[in-house]
Amino acid sequence: MTISRMTPSLHIFWTVLAVLLWSGLLPGLALSAPGDIKWTATLNNTLCSVALAPDGTLYVGSSDKRLHAFNPDGSQKWLTAPTGGSITSSPAVGPDGTLYVGAGNNFYAFKPTDGATKWSTNVAGASFVSSPSIGADGTVYIGAQDNKFYAFNPDGTQKWATATGNVIASSPAIGTDGTIYVGSVDNKLYAFNPSDGTQKWSRATGSGIYYSSVAMASDGTLYIASDDNKLYAINPSDGTQKWASATGGIIRNSSPAIAADGTVYIGSNDNKLWAFNPSDGSVKWTSPAAGSFFTSPVVGSDGVIYAASDDGKVYAFNPASGAVLWSTAGDTFFASPTMAPDGTLYLPGRTAANKLYALSSSSSGLADSPWPRWRHDLRGTGRVTGAAGESPDQPSGVIVSVTRASAVSADPTVLSQSYRFKGFTPKSRKYSFNATVSVNGSTAVFRFNHCGLIPRSSLRLLLV
Q1: How much is the mean pLDDT over the chain?
Q2: Is 406 found in the same domain as 311?
Q3: 237 plus 272 within the same structural domain
Q4: CA-CA-CA-CA torsion for 397, 402, 407, 408, nearest 10 degrees?
Q5: How far apart are CA 312 and CA 147, in angstroms?
C-alpha cells in the first residue's frame, strides 16, 4: 500500500475538472447519464446476445452467418468467414478465449485473435439454436432441434449425445457438481450426468420449455419458465417442485435473473417484468406495462434491473418497487442485454437499422449475486462455478499508488484485463471505482472508468 497526498492546488484542479465533466461544460468529455446511447455499430439483424471476453472484446452472431468481434469502443475487431447457417444463439467464451457457437448443423470453435476456425463439427440434422455452456473440464454442452442434447470435447470430438422428446432450444446450465440442467419443448426439465449423458431425473412442466433457461440460486434451487405462463422453482437433487407461480402471459423467451437478496426477476409476454420471493414464489411486484419482454433481465451492482422490450425501449427498474427509473428508445429488442464491468449495456437491435447498441447505466457491472444474468456470467459459460463474470482471477500483491485521478502505476506483470477497486480515505469514507489496466512496455496503468470529486486526502485502493 502506498499513500500520496495531493497539494491544495492539485485538489482544486481535479475538483473543478470533475464539476465541468459532470455539468457537460466540456464538450465531448461530459459523462454519460444512465440510459444515454454511448455508440452504435453496424450489425446485421440478430437474435443473439453479446458475450464478453475478459479483455472487453464483444462477440455476437448474426443472420449474415458470421460471428462478429467488436472492440469496447464499437469498432470492429474481426468477423469470421461465413458459417453453415444463420447464428441464432449466443457464443460462449472458453478459459483460453476460444469461442464456441452453433450455426445450422455445425458446431464451431473460433480463435479469439482473428476469428479463424479452430475446428467445426457437422451433425446431420441437428440445427443448433441453443447457446452452449462450458463445463469445468472444458466440455461444451449444447441442445439442438433434432431433440438431442450434445457434449463435445474441447477438440471438437463428440463426447456423447442423449435424446429428449422434442426440440431443445433452451440453453443448458451447469451446477456445482457438474450436473447439466436443460429444458425441452417436450414439457420437461432434464438433469443429465456430465460423464455419459445419462438422465438423473426429469420434471414435467405445464407446457413446453422453449428458449427460457435455468438460473440457479445460492442454495441450488433451479428456476425456469414454461409456456404455461409459470415460473418454476425446482429442487436440484431430485427434480421435485418447490413452487410454481403464474404471470399474465406465456414466458417463452425470457430467462430468470437473481438478485443479491435472492429475488427472482423474469419478463413475460403480458408486457410486465415480475419479481418473485424465492421462499414461496409470492409476487413482490410487477412493473408498469411496457412491451412484451422477449428478453431476459440483468441485475446491476446497485440492484437496478435492466430489460429490453419489443416496444423499442430499454428499461431500468427500481428493485424495491418495480418503478421505471428510465427508459431509452432505440430498437425492437429480442436479444438480452449484457453488462460490462464499467456498467455499459450492450445489446443488438432487430430492425432494418442493423445496429449494436452501447448504453450507459447507473451500475458498476453485474450484481454480486448467484445468477445476475442469462448464461450466468459475461463469458456465457452457463456455469455456477468458474468464470466470475466481469473479471478474471485477480493478481495478488499489487500495490496501487494514487498520484493522478486518471492513471496510476502498478505491477507491470499484470495482464490487460478489467478489475474492480474500492477506495478508502483515512476517515473510512468509501468510494467505488472500476478500472481497466493496460500494459505499455514495463508500465501497467489503471485508467478509471468512474470519475468523481477527488477527496482532499489520499486514497488507498484495494483489489476486490
Answers
A1: 80
A2: no
A3: yes
A4: -30
A5: 33
